[in-house]
Design a protein that fits this description.
Elements (H helix, E strand, L loop, with lengths): L3 E6 L3 H12 L4 E7 L2 H8 L7 E5 L7 H7 L5 E6 L6 H8 L3 E4 L4 H12 L4 E2 L1 H12 L5 H8 L3 H11 L4 H8 L3 H15 L4 H10 L9
Parallel strand pairs: 1-2, 1-3, 3-4, 4-5, 5-6
Helix pairs in contact: 2-3, 3-4, 8-10, 8-11, 9-10
GO molecular function: DNA binding
Keywords: DNA-binding, Phosphoprotein, Transcription, Transcription regulation
InterPro entries: CheY-like_superfamily, NreC/VraR/RcsB-like_REC, Sig_transdc_resp-reg_C-effctor, Sig_transdc_resp-reg_receiver, Tscrpt_reg_LuxR_C, WalR-like
């Protein structure tokens, strides 16, 4: 199996080199590029075949991580790196197309797992930041077109969307609903297609925006 190709983007040399060193020590991960700002990241990404994951800092010179994430949309999956769990830029970055976020103070194992999770197509919603994001989702107005997307879902697909929004992995959903992981993956794919969500992060936003899942519901 080919290793997961990763780019690390951060204007701080020590942070960037440290992350790269940790990831390069894994047999299934290869750091193929490092960038010091968003513009550099976009430029390098265009020349790298099969780049899977970009770990992206937010506050950088020349071009910030939000604009770089927007320009990388449709390409490699982007994980936002942030120092503070209250960073207001995180929400904007997710809306720009990021597939998740990770606190810079995360452990070595959390960093490695994040790359694997994102490369596998799942969302990465770190618990310390999720609550604030949910609060922001709840502030949005929902149009009739967005609500209509939910109406297109079957009962099972809505059930799975709720579990996805609560942060469950495919394996956890399969266990709870007594289904195979393959069946869950099929339902998730259909749910994403019907709602027009690019990935699980957008599905989570949809679920909270429409009230299908609320911050107070367990």
């Amino acid at each position: 199996m080919n290793p997961i190709k990763v780019m690390v983007v951060d204007d701080q040399d020590l942070v960037r080199d440290g992350i790269a060193m940790i990831l390069d020590g894994q047999p299934d991960i290869e750091v193929v590029a490092q960038a010091t700002d968003g513009a550099d990241a976009v430029r390098q990404a265009a020349a790298i075949l099969d780049l899977a994951v970009v770990l992206m800092d937010v506050r950088m010179p020349v071009m910030d991580g939000i604009e770089a994430t927007r320009r990388l949309a449709g390409g490699p999956r982007v994980v936002i790196l942030t120092t503070f769990d209250l960073d207001e830029y995180v929400y904007d970055a997710l809306r720009a197309g990021a597939s998740g976020f990770l606190l810079k103070r995360s452990s070595r194992d959390e960093l490695i797992n994040a790359v694997r999770v994102i490369a596998a197509g799942d969302a990465l919603l770190a618990p310390p930041v999720t609550r604030r994001l949910i609060d922001r989702f709840a502030e949005n107005q929902v149009d009739t077109e967005t609500v209509a997307k939910l109406d297109a879902l079957t009962a099972r697909e809505r059930e799975i969307l709720v579990l996805v929004a609560k942060g469950n992995s495919n394996a956890e959903i399969a266990a709870e609903l007594h289904l195979t992981e393959h069946t869950v993956k099929t339902h998730v794919s259909r749910m994403l297609a019907k709602t027009g969500a690019r990935d699980r992060v957008q599905a989570v936003i949809l679920a909270y925006n429409t009230g299908l899942v609320t911050a107070g519901r367990g």
